[in-house]
Structure formats: structure tokens, C-alpha cells
Amino acid sequence: METAVRLETLFGQIISLPGTTRKFEESRNICFTESQFFQVFDVDWKAGDKHKALDAEDGVVLSERYALKYFGTTDVIGRTLRINNQQELTVNGLIGDPPSNTRLGYDIMVSYNLIAQGNKADWNNTSSLCFVAMKPQQTMGQLQQALQKINQQYLSAEQTSLLHFQALPLSELSHNTQYGGTVPRPLLYVLTVIGILLVAAACINFINMATAQSIKRSKETGIRKAVGSTRSQLVIEFLTETAMVTLVAVMMSVIIVQLCLPWLNNALSVLRADMSVLWLFRPHFLSWFLVLIVGVILLSGLYPALVLSRFTPIAVLQGRVNSIRTRGASLRKVLVVTQFLSPNSLS
């Protein structure tokens, strides 16, 4: 492996400023870790020596927002904090605020050496995680084999029945509930299916309304064909109308979501949620969003466009439109049943 770093999240820690009565209770956003953290993970380093910031036992690194919270300034190198009214810590580094979508969003990083001295031979300490940066030619299987040897060498048979060291890809850290993950993949799949069913129900509802009102536009279609419009031209025109309705709906939904997000972020403040509709403009999300919009336009607009464009001038003048519409009645009935079954399947 290239390098590794140990990390232990802390809860219920009291941070105070020497010489003052100010105290702060911190949980989840404070941890013990090592200077190698800044080599394994991308961090917006602002001040100090990131290679040695946490080498000393009393070293601590703060984020910019917590530097402002404690000292009212970001010029904090060399200043001191006290943890749990016991150990004074010296600020040796300053980093940018961690993004809201990271599992490792720590604002206070205390030197792991403060607790490591008495735990060097304690292989039963399962409260810490170890992140490993592997070399390109190494595989997960090789790492797991090395951990298996550690299990056999340092853990007794009784201990291995209760715990063992396991390699886990970083991408699975939030999804594996056995190792502290809070968002299992089955839950994501269920939410995805729910979203697809809701979009499908909306498309079916649009199709049913458009085809039900097709009789009102039969004369328009017949006249257009009489003056020379082809069926393909009419299909493109009706799809364009659907696209305009869809885009207006998208703009309205984006505005409504943006107005509601502050309340949602506040409700999820314990998770440090900071969601924004601006995420939609990131390349990865934008590509999927555009595919969704195009898919909705085609799914909801193509069938009504084909129905409306098939009317002929002669059929309209002879009053045979109703007989033509009845040919698609069975399909509309299927769509209506599907529309009602989709929401009921979610309950």
C-alpha cells in the first residue's frame, strides 16, 4: 500500500478556550486522526504544514468556519484550545470547510498520537477506522488476505468469533450497515423505483388527458392536412407543444424545490444537509436530468401526437372521428388502470 491513516470519530466532547469561560459541546464533527489524512483525502489546505500538523500529541487542525466560531478570525496558527478541561491543544493547521456531501466532514481534527500511546498493542479497539491508499497494481483480494493473516496472528479464536478486520471499498462506506453505513443500497433502489413510478404516473395522466381531448382538435388537424401538412410535420408540432409544457413544468418544479430546500436542510441539520438545485448543473447530474426530460417528452407526447396526426380531412367532414378514436380506447383503459395501480403499489 502507498499510505494509511487511522481515524476515530468523537462524540460529546467539550471544547473550551483557555482564559475564558466559553465552552462548546462538539459531536460527530471532531475526530482523532493523523497527518496522513491529508495525503489520503483531498483537503483544501489553507495554512500550516499539512505533512506535520498532527505529528505532535497536542496538535489540532480546524476548519475555517470553526476557526471563526472559536476565535473570530482565520489567523489561528499557534493558538490553543482545551479538550474536556484536560488537554491543551495547539492549532497547527487550517483547512477549508468540508463539503456537505462527505461522510468525513470533520471541522476539528485532533492528533491521534494523543490516544495512540496506550493502544498500540490493543487489537480489540474497534472504535477506529483505518483508511488505506493502495498501489495501482494491488487488488482488494490481496488486502483481504493480509487482513486475514492479522486476524489469525493477533486475535484468539474467541475474539475472531466476535470481531475481525475486513476491507471495505470507500464507495461502500455509507451503504454497508454492518460497518456503520446509514444509507443501504436497497433503500436507494426502492426510492429510485418510487421516483420512476411517480414520473410514469404523471406521463400516463398527460397521455389520457391529451387523447381524451383529441376530438376537440380533430378539425384543426383535418384542416392542416387539407392545406398540405404531412403527418410527420404534425407529429413534430404536437411533440413541440408537449416539450414546451414539460419545460414550463420543470422550471416551476425547480423554483418550488428551491423555495422548500431551506426548510428541508434545516430539518436535516443533524446530517449537515446543504442541498441546492445548483447540483443539477453539475455535469454528472445534468446529463441524467436532460435524459429524464427528453424521456418524459417522448413518453408523454409521442402517443398523443400519433393519435392527433392520424385524423383525415374526409373522416372529420363525414363525422367519423368518434369511430377512429374508439380504436385506441382499449389502450387508454389500460393506461388508466396502470395510472391507478402505480400509486397504490407505493402504499
SSE diagram, text form:
Elements: E1 3-10, E2 13-16, E3 23-26, E4 30-33, H1 37-40, E5 45-48, E6 59-63, H2 64-71, E7 80-83, E8 87-95, E9 108-111, H3 113-116, E10 129-133, H4 140-154, H5 157-160, H6 185-212, H7 218-226, H8 231-267, H9 283-309, H10 313-317, H11 321-325, H12 329-346
Parallel strand pairs: 4-9, 6-8
Antiparallel strand pairs: 1-4, 1-10, 2-3, 2-7, 5-8, 6-9, 7-8
Total strands: the figure is: 10
Distance between the termini: 49 Å
How would you sum up the global shape?
Answer: elongated
The SSE string, one letter per element, is EEEEHEEHEEEHEHHHHHHHHH
Rounded to the nearest angstrom, the radius of gyration is: 31 Å
Residues in helix, %:
40-55%
The biggest sheet amounts to: 10 strands, mixed
Number of helices: 12
**Average pLDDT:** 82
Which structural category do the helix and sheet elements fall into? Answer: alpha+beta
Provide the low-confidence segments as ranges: none
Report the sheet-strand fraction: 5-15%
